[in-house]
Amino acid sequence: MSPQTAALGRRDTDSRGGADLARRFGDALRVADGAQAELVSREALAIGMSVPGVYTRVLAPAMHRIGELWEQRAITVADEHAATAITHRVMAALYSSLGVKHAATRETIVLAAPVGQYHDLGLRMAADVLEGAGFHVVYLGIDVPADALAAAVAEQMPALVCLSMTMPLGTANLETAIAGVADAAPDAQVLLGGQGVGRRLLDKGVPYAPDVESLVGIATELIREESRPFRTSVRPAPILRAMASSEREQGIGTLQDNMTQTVRDMADMLREQTRLVNKFQSLAFEDFLCGLPNRRAFDDRFDTLTATEASLPLTVMLLDLDGLKVVNDTHGHERGDEVLCLVADVLRREVRDGDFPARFGGDEFAILLPGADLAAAKAISDRIKRGVRTAWSDGALGMSTGAALHEGDKRLTLLHADEALYRAKEARARGVRRPRLAGSSTGSGPGSRSNHDVNREQGLGGTATPDGADLAAGTTAGRRGRSKVEVPNVGVET
Ligand code: B12
Predict the structure, then answer these.
(1) Which of 51, 126, 213, 360 has minimal Cβ neighbours within 10 Å of its Cβ?
(2) Whose CA is nearest to atom 75 of ligand 1?
């Protein structure tokens, strides 16, 4: 049994919802119905499968079934090519769902299949999945001679080289490729994948990924390891060009092969297009420094969250970093930028699933908290403040926050949160600790008590948040020289 078969055997595809979809995807491949195949793949996403999951549990088993049919002579090589082309097309369509970012921030990974290996779906899947995880991917494709691979590796100096092997007959070529990589970049890790990787290499301890669903975890772990666990002692063998006696028999260089090649090229163009769209989107909707959504994205999400009457309660939190100027003045602006990225990381880490942290610019951040009341907002704010204090411990930095429950008017909600933030900032600047007020209570669920309720109960001139935290009262002037605006006493310093 190949490692791939063993891995698939261990995986309970039925209980994870893949088997039926794989069968239907395979049926679509058999009759060359590309539209139906794409529908099935979308269905898999719709039931919550990740793209690597769809690749591993739907597309791959369906293609394996095509192989069995070919073995039984129930289909021809031309049918195999049509199935491959359709799967390439489906993968290119799924690519946009991987959420590939334009600015790959992680290490470089080179992918290739050694000379004589013509199966490319598994390798392409691996490349997509790694790109989706944020790695900088250099995809060399199939049938790559060992010296070309070594040259690319020497140029890229990747952290990891992934090699794919579908035909077990090519083991000598794979060993040559591994030896070439080790010479060109001794610090690079090597990871093998594909159903043709034989025991000989696995027994030597060369790392192996059974599928692309487990790939990111395995790759990340390997890259993290400090010393290279596997150093090949394999002597480069002479490069073998072809695995089987006749390429014609294998359907390589035929009309159908050319057709697959055309579809593959189109799929790559589609990927490139998606990369560009993602790039423009992130330029328009992301903060270029720390990668958080920007003000425009925040506004869009706000509108989406409040579009229907049945929308969840929504709390808006504004956050302002105190002391950034001191950091900039004492340590320089680069350090200041680092601090902003650090705060962005704290925000990402401390919010709940579904919350939406954004950077407004300067030292201002904001978070949309759907389904949260003011007490929940306070708890999140406490976590964030703790996170910021831990991340930057020299005492120069602090965070002021203010929150308001949305009550239908976006402008007012932001104004209320802004007022609360201003009061928090003022109090912080004065070093004032206002006494807690007696009689404060804790909110009991989303939207249980509004800003108005809280303030009405406590009266103007000093009130408390639902969980008893301090709350400033009265009307105040807006920040940043904005003209004085009379607003009801709403919004809480969180
Ligand atoms: C389509 C196909 C072809 C096409 C390939 C077109 C193309 N552009 O890829 C063509 C017609 C060219 C072809 C040719 C041949 N093929 Co062919 N082919 C297949 C078929 C039906 C599907 C391959 C496929 O795309 N599978 C889907 C992928 C996604 O699955 P996968 O490779 O297992 O990938 C998964 C994992 O292994 C892993 N993975 C794979 N690669 C990588 C890489 C990395 C880095 C990582 C981390 C993970 C990883 O992740 C994937 C998903 O989780 C298979 C059947 C099968 N069992 O796969 C036969 C099969 C592989 N072919 C076979 C044979 C014999 C041949 C030929 C000799 C003759 C022929 N005409 O079929 C030639 C040899 C070509 C060569 N020298 O490479 C045999 C191999 C048997 C063996 N063990 O020796 C198979 C198994 C068919 C069979 N049942 O007999 N083939």
Answers:
(1) 360
(2) 118
Higher pLDDT, residue 297 or 249: 297
Distance 74 CA to ligand 1 centre (A): 17
Integer Cα distance of 457 and 443 in angstroms: 13
| CATH entry, 99-249, from 3.30.450.20, 2.40.440.10, 3.40.50.280, 2.30.33.40 | 3.40.50.280
Tell me the pTM.
Answer: 0.70
> 142, 208 in Cβ contact below 8 A?
no
The CATH fold assigned to 9-97+253-284 is 1.10.1240
Q: Which of 385, 61, 409, 377 is nearest to 213 (CA)?
A: 61
What are 340-365's pLDDT values in tens digits?
999 999 999 999 989 999 999 889 99
Beta strands 463-464 and 470-471: pairing type? antiparallel
Map out the domains of the chain as residue ranges.
Answer: 9-97+253-284, 99-249, 286-493
Give the closest residue (by CA) to ligand 1 atom 62: 67
pLDDT tens for 286-330 read 998 998 999 999 999 999 999 876 777 899 999 999 888 888 888
Position 192, amino acid:
L
Q: Do 44 and 54 form a contact (C-beta atoms < 8 A)?
A: yes
List the Cα angle 485/489/492 in 5-degree steps.
110
Q: Could you tell me the distance, in angstroms and rounded to a whole number, from the CA of residue 125 to the centre of ligand 1?
A: 13
Residue nearest to atom 46 of ligand 1 (CA): 193
Which residue lies with its CA nearest to atom 48 of ligand 1? 193
Q: How far is the CA of 114 from the centre of ligand 1 (A)?
A: 14
Domain 286-493 grouped into CATH 3.30.70.270: yes
Q: Are 374 and 416 in contact (CB under 8 A)?
A: no
Rounded to whole angstroms, the Cα distance separating 428 from 493 reads 11
Q: Please indicate whether residue 56, judged by its CB atom, sits closer than 6 Å to ligand 1.
A: yes
- 150-158 average pLDDT score: 94
**Distance in Å, CA 69 to ligand 1 centroid:** 13
**Which residues make beta-bridge pairs with 192?**
163, 208
Torsions phi, psi for 304 (to 5 deg): -65, -45
Whether 260 lines ligand 1, by a CB cut-off of 6 Å, is yes
* CB-based contact 464:435 (threshold 8 Å): no
pLDDT higher at 12 or 144:
144
Q: Which two tokens stand for residue 341?
A: 């990225």
